[in-house]
Amino acid sequence: MISILAVVASAADITGTWKADLETPQGTVQVNYTFKQDGGTLTGTWQAAQSPTVEITEGKVAGDKVSFVVKIGPNGEMTFAHEGTIKGDEIQLIMKPSGEFPGSSVVAKRVKQ
């Protein structure tokens, strides 16, 4: 029982605003994440450059691991699965898009308020 409580207590809380620079063939694009963590459940929004803000889905946090999905397009036809590792005020994320597009990695940094 004590070890279970220790794992829950040590889980990172990533609630807040995070920013990352995504390298694309057209240049660097700033990506904004706003996370709300409730235990192991993660909700929030994602927004890149001038694109609309979209809700993240399937969000989970377990220890220092985070995962969530972003669906883009009028009907959510483009899906980006995100998996990452939380390291203090940085999250190293791998973005895996659906379709034939290559994946990429970004480092999101917590925005200090």
Could you give a short description of this structure?
Helix content is 8%, strand content 63%. By secondary structure, it is mostly beta strands.
Structure overview:
The chain is mainly beta and 113 residues long. The protein contains one helix and eight strands, in the order αββββββββ. The protein has a single domain (2-110), classed as Lipocalin (Beta Barrel), CATH 2.40.128. It has an eight-stranded antiparallel beta barrel with strand order 1-2-3-4-5-6-7-8. The longest helix has 9 residues, at 2-10.
Features:
disordered N terminus; Lipocalin; mainly beta; 8 strands; 8-stranded antiparallel barrel; 1 helix; 113 residues
Give the amount of beta strand, in percent: over 45%
Largest sheet: 8 strands, antiparallel, barrel
Low-confidence stretches: 1-9
Number of H/I helices: 1
Count the strands? 8
Distance between the termini: 36 Å
> What's the rounded overall pLDDT mean?
87
Shape call: globular
Q: What's the Cα radius of gyration?
A: 14 Å
Indicate the multimeric state: single chain
Write out the strand line-up for the largest beta sheet, numbering strands in chain order: 1-2-3-4-5-6-7-8
